[in-house]
Amino acid sequence: MIEKDTLLFLGTSLGLLILIHLILQFALPQIVKLFYKPSSSRVKRSIGKFTQSLKWGFFFAVFPIIEPYFSPPNLLYIGRQRFFVVLSIITLTWIIIEFSNVIRHIFLEKFTYDKEDNLRERRVITQVAFIRKLFIIGVVVIAFAAILMNFESARKIGTGLLTSAGILGIIIGFAAQKSIANLLAGFQIAFTQPIRIDDVVVVEGEWGKIEEINLTYVVVQIWDQRRLVLPINYFIEKPFQNWTRTTAAIWGTVFIYVDPTVSVGEIKTKLKEILEATPLWDKKVQVLQVTDWTEKTIELRCLMSAKDSPTAFDLRCLVREELLLYLQKTQPNSLPKSRVLMEKATGKQED
Q: InterPro entries, per this entry (predicted)?
């Protein structure tokens, strides 16, 4: 049978848990708002998760302090039991991780890459994301070690491992060679930054944007919404194209093949009209040149500039359509054609 004092203690503990939870449910959000008023949805969500972790954190911090005042004398203190200590370590780890998430979103609130010139923002976002991942790994490792220290058997295992650390280190070094190489490549990418979040790249023959940079791999969002996942050391060891390394501006080309009788000057004038009439052109580069001449056609290259690669693609398509329509209406004979020369036979017919 459970004694009345024990039942009273358990009931009081449960009531205390509910009371602390209810108080923190309403008090913590108000306290946080006194110091900071979130403006973005990401910051609001991160603060909500942080306050949720604090509710349990305060309970595990306050409970061992007040427990001796109402715990039965013949009952061991729960706050000193191993499972309670482990729960406290887990909760503290949870609080630290959520707090780092709040700090990250508050710091990055002024850095958004939803604008035309976002080179600085993408650089900072990439570095902060990588540093936070390393920080979380360090916190989890320390918490796991602290939990193991509460178990005598785990401490003995740790002592045995330390005596064979030389052999174990060699084995782990060979087994984790690629993982360590990826981790070091992640450090190099985070600070030298051959790629950044939202960079436009061409890898493995695919055009896309850098969506995620993790500790060991990179996710590229392909233009048709597919995802290309590559090991992070790919961007250290293999060549690739980065179209937004220093700026997002890019030049686009359109090749037109027409008959040699075409009026190149009129097409130049028409190209200028097309570009000046569209907001896709950034008004920096506008060139039309004859770049090749074969026995059947001449090659015209139209060169134009745009603020970024998606805009350049749309601009090139527009120029092709407008020039084709112009040639069909004004110079239909200048479209590519094949010529056949037929000569009448002059030989005499024999009887």
A: LSM_dom_sf (IPR010920), MscS_beta-dom_sf (IPR023408), MscS_channel_2nd (IPR006685), MscS_channel_TM-2 (IPR011014)
